[in-house]
Amino acid sequence: IFIDLYQRWGTVRIGFSKKSLMQEIKRNRSNLIIISLASLLLAGIASSLLAGRISGPIRELSEGALSISRGNLNQKLIIRTGDEIEELSKIFNRMTQDLAKNRDQQRRLIEQLSQKNVLLKREIEAREQLESELIKIERLRALGEMSGGVAHDFNNILGAILGRSQLLLEKVDTPSIKRGIEIIEKAALDGAETVRRVSLIHI
User: Fold this and answer.
1) Which residues of 55-78 are buried (b: 16+ CB within 10 A; e: fewer)?
2) What is the overall mean pLDDT for the chain?
3) For 177, phi and psi rounded to 5 degrees?
4) What span, in angstroms and rounded, lies between the C-alpha atoms of 156 and 185?
5) Is the backbone of residue 75 left (phi > 0), alpha (psi -120 to 50) or beta?
6) pLDDT (tens digit, 9 = 90+) per residue, 185-203?
7) What are the tens digits of pLDDT across the range 169-180?
8) Contacts 24+ apart (CB under 8 A), 65-72
9) Which residues contact 184 (CB under 8 A, 6 or more apart)?
10) φ and ψ of 35, to 5 deg
11) What is the pTM of this model?
């Protein structure tokens, strides 16, 4: 039997319902809109949580810096972010402890010096004026050396804070966070200026 493969046998028509096709398109379009809205919502929530995770600790650091600049050394920052901000908070806490310790030592030394001053004044009254002046100069020199040592330690701590702040400024793009870090940087610079002025008093 010979079969001609090129001979036309008939026509098959396949039809699609336009109505069901349009319904499918509408359904897909609705699904796409819902997925897009859900994605935008999730992205907004994620960015809000991320911003809160960064801006919250930065706000705590800036408030801590302002509090320290006002002389409040009875505080401890507890920030657990696992990054440079947490490291900076630890430096803050160490600095605050050192400052409180130094302040207490200075108070004790001032009290001791005050008590010794009474005794020295009684003895100095019986001595010549020149000997009296020499003793005063020696006491001022010792106090100046002590203040210089404290100022050096304090400057080292402020240097670490300033360095970390400047590193964070380079990494952060959010204006509100940058403002918080700039407050920390300014507080560190103000502290350094205060130490410089105190050092000049005792020279």
Assistant:
1) bebbbbbbebbebbeeeebeeebe
2) 78
3) -70, -40
4) 14
5) beta
6) 888 888 888 877 777 765 5
7) 888 888 888 898
8) 65/92, 65/161, 65/183, 65/184, 65/187, 65/188, 66/183, 66/187, 68/92, 68/95, 68/96, 68/99, 68/187, 68/191, 69/187, 69/190, 69/191
9) 61, 62, 65, 88, 161, 165
10) -65, -40
11) 0.31
Four-residue CA torsion sign, 109, 110, 113, 118? negative
82: left (phi over 0), alpha (psi -120 to 50) or beta: left
State CA 78 to chain mean position distance: 12
* CA end-to-end span of the chain: 123
Those residues whose C-beta lies under 8 Å from the C-beta of residue 139, and which sit 6 or more positions away, are 113
Which structure tokens are listed for 61? 């650091």
Nearest to 147 by CA among 197, 100, 113, 97: 197
